[in-house]
Amino acid sequence: IFLYGISNGGRVVLHGASKLTTDKIKGVISEAPAAAGRKLGDLKVPTIIAQGKMDNWGGRFGTDYIWKRTFPFSPISVEKWVQSLQENERPIRFIFYKNAGHSFHSGSLERVSQVRVGGASFTAYLGAVEGVVAQYERDVFAFVKENMAR
Asked: Do 91 and 143 form a contact (C-beta atoms < 8 A)?
């Protein structure tokens, strides 16, 4: 069994995998996990976090990248959490994709404007340039093959 999630679902699979006590989970693939949500704990399952290098979804400004954000209720960024796990020799790694925003599978890379709850708006990158999804799929299939027999 491999767990996969994107955005809020990416955060959920990271949280869920840190709570599991089964060896049936062979790996976790989290694409662009949300910056806030369920607390991220100690993760011992092989994990890759696929992240668009331009992913500023929901940010307050252009370089407010999702993996660097903190909130009062989520005081550690995904980036710092991954670093802490790596320092403890946990099998987790970031794979950054150049010329990609949030949700690479959403089509060609474009700047989009969205309106938040409460009326404030933000502009962010969505999708990816040609070739990113193919590379991502190669990376995911290699990860699955590497961890299938674990």
From this structure: no
Nearby residues of 100 by Cβ (< 8 Å), 6 or more positions away: 52, 53, 54, 55, 109, 125, 127, 128, 129, 132
What letter represents residue 31's amino acid?
E
* Token duo for residue 39: 């607390």
Residue 118 zone, left/alpha/beta (φ > 0; ψ -120 to 50; rest):
left
How many C-beta atoms surround the C-beta of residue 83 within 10 A? 14
User: Model's pTM, two decimal places?
Assistant: 0.90
pLDDT tens-digit profile, the chain (150 residues): 999 999 999 999 999 998 887 788 999 999 999 998 888 989 999 999 999 999 998 888 889 999 999 988 888 999 999 999 999 999 999 999 999 999 988 899 999 887 666 667 778 899 999 999 999 999 999 999 999 987
